[in-house]
Amino acid sequence: MAELQEVQITEEKPLLPGQTPEAAKTHSVETPYGSVTFTVYGTPKPKRPAILTYHDVGLNYKSCFQPLFQFEDMQEIIQNFVRVHVDAPGMEEGAPVFPLGYQYPSLDQLADMIPCVLQYLNFSTIIGVGVGAGAYILARYALTGLTSSIPEMILGHLFSQEELSGNSELIQKYRNIITHAPNLDNIELYWNSYNNRRDLNFERGGDITLKCPVMLVVGDQAPHEDAVVECNSKLDPTQTSFLKMADSGGQPQLTQPGKLTEAFKYFLQGMGYMASSCMTRLSRSRTASLTSAASVDGNRSRSRTLSQSSESGTLSSGPPGHTMEVSC
Ligand code: BEZ
């Protein structure tokens, strides 16, 4: 009886005769960790992520992925996506040997180069396909929350998800400004510094808190509303006016400049910098009535919490601070 033998079966189903692979275009971009080369196959498909691949050690994109991406059955899938095949630095075909002593980027740094590739291509979302070291790099990239391009991440910092998905004219305008900023590289550096910020370590009643008058403003639908509420809880309530603006998102100075101006006027007035004649007549009359009402409830927090009603467009403070109303 013939002995059973283990045989290796290699599936061979390459492209059909006459089927030509899509044209590829190779690009290089400079990143803070050196230049990176990548090859793009296909054209971007509206509302679809790009497939981005990262190869393993000892390979490049072609030796790692060509058999898979040129497999016949794979065509049905990949024809629906643009593909971006990244070559780790120095692994691209024809790459020169790095000079002696060259410090090769760490895997973390290789992951940090990916946003530069996506930014260059203006792609915001990807489906990552990685092998070995490439899988680590893509996982590291996904872990750091870099699932969007830098402009999209910055937009997510500036505006709430509701505002972004509403895609109002304002959002379109700011998306356009940021995405096409000629100084996007500089913006990214500022963004990185922001993400590496230290905690302010405010402590109410402690040594580290602001001693000066503060007006803290946040939209009630702002992406970082909780952080601003928490900040207010750590400030000196006798020095702090906290204004949570109703129906306002991440950038009240853009969406509600009138209400903000009015609140700022009162804040300055509280410091003696604005004559009351500068206040609107309506505001002054309402201030008078609401301030006396506020004194009834004098045992509440001493911070001036300014709540704003969207319907009347008024601002009123909690006791016993100044009552603020905004007539917009
Ligand atoms: C592609 O179609 O994505 C592809 C073609 C050749 C090599 C690797 C990928």
From TrEMBL:
Q: Which family does it belong to?
A: Belongs to the NDRG family.
Name the domain of life this protein comes from: Eukaryota
User: How is this protein named in the record?
Assistant: NDRG2 isoform 18
Disordered: region residues: 1-28, 291-328
Q: Name one Pfam family in it.
A: Ndr
Q: Where is the composition biased (Low complexity)?
A: 304-318
